[in-house]
Amino acid sequence: MPTEPGGRPESQPVTTVYRPSEPVDLRHTLGPLGRGPYDPTTVWDARGLWRTFRTPDGPVTLRVEATSDGFRATAWGPGADWAIAGVPQLLGGDDDWSALDVSASPLLRESRRRNPGIRLTRTRRVFEALAPAIVEQKVTSVEAYRSWARLVRRFGEPAPGPAPEGMRVVPSPVTWRRIPSWEWHKAGVDPRRSRAVVESATVADSLERATASAASLAEAAARLRTVLGVGVWTAAETLQRSHGDPDAVSVGDYHLAHYVGSALIGRRVDDDGMLELLEPWAGQRQRVIRLILASGHRDERHGPRMTIQDHRNH
């Protein structure tokens, strides 16, 4: 029977129980990790979450369920020990909201009261958050979700352990670099985005080290942006997940500025207007955005919709 370096059989699960000191809402906290309804790395059910990762030790399937006094996490595969060790960070154990003052905004104040379990997750895996963010650049969510699902199903590997049928682990950086151009084409990913994913995969290991050793999250973002095809929006989307960045704002998002403006002052604004509105919460702007998104506010969209592009016909 194959064993891990520490002598544990590969098929043997690793389990922990995490009891956070603050409330944690599982869906609000880990929801951003999934990339749409077709994502084969993420499956929700009535009891909790199934999620696959590619860790430094290899692929892993992680199961997280709520218990009466916390969360039970079980992991299978070569990366099981690594994943279990990171459960507190994954569930926002390092995410401190105590300094966030939302008393000046009725909407934020009410959202915080109603959603005390929102936490910012920290996966500790940069490239795994970066690749789908690049696929999502400048296209509709529907396009991006379908492209991501096709690529992961085609080039990922089966999830370890008793994962739900069809679950996959994201391809390794080496595999991403070897995906033929016609497969990107079939997945609806244009050459600009596919080149950016390949370029990121080429330097994936150095990105993991550089962002982990960065003196600040701003420095980590700057290092991400040195990669061709990675801009402010993509770096923010990545660090929100890999590092739990409490301040990263996805500037350039097609709808975010409109939504933030509508929620905070009752009218739409552009990116500059959004940044001005969020300035009082500098250092905590991602937390404010998460409260807005959880508030139930609905923005009436009157502007033009982004057109779905079918790159397979180009």
From TrEMBL:
One of its GO terms (molecular function) is DNA-7-methylguanine glycosylase activity. Residues 1-33 are annotated as: Disordered. Coiled coil: none annotated. This is DNA-3-methyladenine glycosylase 2 family protein. PANTHER family: DNA GLYCOSYLASE, DNA-3-METHYLADENINE GLYCOSYLASE. One of its GO terms (cellular component) is cytoplasm. It comes from Leifsonia tongyongensis. Keywords: DNA damage, DNA repair. GO terms for biological process: base-excision repair, AP site formation; DNA alkylation repair.
